[in-house]
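Q: Given only this backbone (142 positions), what sequence would you predict?
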C-alpha cells in the first residue's frame, strides 16, 4: 500500500480580508479572468497555427471552459478598455483592480463585501462611479 502524497505547505501568509496579505504574491501582476482567457486562447491558437503540439489535457480543457463561461469581456479591445480604466486607480492594489474587472459588481456595498480590502481605500461614491463605468463598458461589449 502506497502512502498518499501529502500537500506541501502553501505558505499560509496570504489573506484577502480588510487588509491584503499576499505574501510572496505581493506586487505580482494580476489578470482578470477575461485577460487570462485571451492569453490562453492566443497561446493555443498560435501553437495550432504553427503545428506545435498543444497537448490539450483535461485540465486545459476545463480551464478554457471555465474562462469562457466566467469571462465578462470576450474581445481584446474590451479587455484593454477595462484595464485602462482600472489602471487609473493607483490607490488600489493590482489584485483589487483585477477582482473588480472580473466580478463586475453592481454596487459599492457588493464590491466591498466581496473585496473587503476596499473598505477604507475608496469611498462609496468613487467606487460607484468606477462600477458604473465598468458596467457601461460591459454593456457596450455585449
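A: Predicted residues:
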Amino acid at each position: 500500500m502506497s502512502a498518499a502524497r501529502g500537500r506541501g505547505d502553501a505558505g499560509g501568509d496570504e489573506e484577502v480580508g480588510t487588509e491584503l496579505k499576499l505574501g510572496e504574491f505581493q506586487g505580482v501582476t494580476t489578470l482578470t479572468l477575461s485577460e487570462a482567457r485571451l492569453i490562453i486562447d492566443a497561446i493555443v491558437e498560435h501553437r495550432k497555427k504553427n503545428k506545435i503540439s498543444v497537448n490539450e489535457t483535461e485540465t486545459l480543457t476545463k480551464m478554457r471552459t471555465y474562462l469562457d463561461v466566467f469571462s465578462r469581456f470576450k474581445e481584446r479591445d474590451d479587455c484593454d478598455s477595462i484595464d485602462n480604466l482600472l489602471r487609473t486607480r493607483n490607490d488600489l492594489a493590482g489584485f483589487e483592480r483585477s477582482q473588480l474587472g472580473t466580478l463586475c459588481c453592481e454596487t459599492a456595498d457588493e464590491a466591498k463585501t466581496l473585496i473587503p480590502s476596499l473598505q477604507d481605500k475608496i469611498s462609496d461614491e468613487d467606487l460607484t462611479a468606477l462600477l458604473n463605468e465598468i458596467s457601461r463598458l460591459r454593456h457596450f461589449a455585449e
